[in-house]
Amino acid sequence: MSELRRLRQLEEENSRLKRLVVDLSRDKHMRPEALEKRLRPARCRELAQWLWDVIVTLIDATTEIYSAFFVEEEGTLSSFRGLREVIETKGLFSALYTERGSHYWLTEAGGGRVDKIRLTQVRRAVPYVGITLIPAYSPEARGRSERVFRTLQDRLPKELALAGITEMAAANWYLPEHFLP
C-alpha cells in the first residue's frame, strides 16, 4: 500500500510541477535571439553582513546577469523563481547550464557525475517548456561564474550598507533598480 501512496504523491507532485511550468511560460513567446543563449543560475553564499543567499542567473558566455534576488535559503523554489524571472523578462531559452547542486541534479558524491535517471523537481519540469538542462563539469565555466560571484560578494554588502539597507525586501528592490546594469 505504501508504494501506491508514494506513486500517488509523485503523480500529484508532477501535476503541481506541470502547472508551475505552464504558469511560468504562459503568454511567453520564444524569442529567436534567446534560443542559442545558455543561461547559468548560481548562488553567492556568505554575504558578509547577511545570512541571505543571492540567486543569480546569468549568460554563461558573457556573464550578463539576467536575474538576481535574495532568499533566506536557496532551493527548488528559488530556482523556479529565477527561471520565471528570466522567462518573463527575456523570453524562453533553449538550454540551462547549471551547477550540480541538489535542486538541479542528484549526485552520489560531491563533485561526482550527475544521476540522469533519478530526477529533481527542476530536472523533471524544464523539459515541458523545451529547456535542456546541462550539468557544469568544465572548470572554465565554473571559473567564469565564480569570478562574477566573487565580485558580487565584494560589492553587494558594501553597496547595500552605503544605501542603508538591512532588510531583505529592500535589498531585493535595490538589486534590479540600482545595482544591476
Describe this structure in words.
The chain has 181 residues and is α/β, with parallel strands linked by helices. The chain has a single domain (2-179), classed as Nucleotidyltransferase, domain 5. Helices cover 44% and strands 18% of the residues. A hairpin with a 5-residue loop joins strand 2 and strand 3. Mean pLDDT is 78; it is low at 26-39 and 42-49.
Question: Which features characterize this protein?
Answer:
about 180 residues, alpha/beta, globular, Nucleotidyltransferase, domain 5, five-stranded mixed β-sheet, about 20% strand, single chain, 5 helices
How would you summarize the topology of this molecule?
Layout: H1 2-25, E1 38-44, E2 53-59, E3 65-71, H2 76-90, E4 95-98, E5 106-107, E6 114-115, H3 121-125, E7 132-135, H4 139-162, H5 168-179
Parallel strand pairs: 1-4, 4-7
Antiparallel strand pairs: 1-2, 2-3, 5-6
Oligomer: single chain
> Over all CA atoms, what is the radius of gyration?
17 Å
CATH topology: Nucleotidyltransferase, domain 5
CATH homology group: Ribonuclease H-like superfamily/Ribonuclease H
Strand order of the largest sheet: 3-2-1-4-7
CATH architecture: 2-Layer Sandwich
Largest sheet: 5 strands, mixed
Residue windows where pLDDT falls under 50 for at least 5 positions: 26-39, 42-49
Order of helices and strands: HEEEHEEEHEHH
Structural class: alpha/beta
Mean pLDDT: 78
Question: Helical element count?
Answer: 5
The beta-strand count equals 7
CATH class: Alpha Beta
Helix content: 40-55%
What is the rounded distance between the termini?
55 Å
Number of domains: 1
What amount of the residues lies in strands? Answer: 15-25%
Which geometry do the CA atoms define? globular
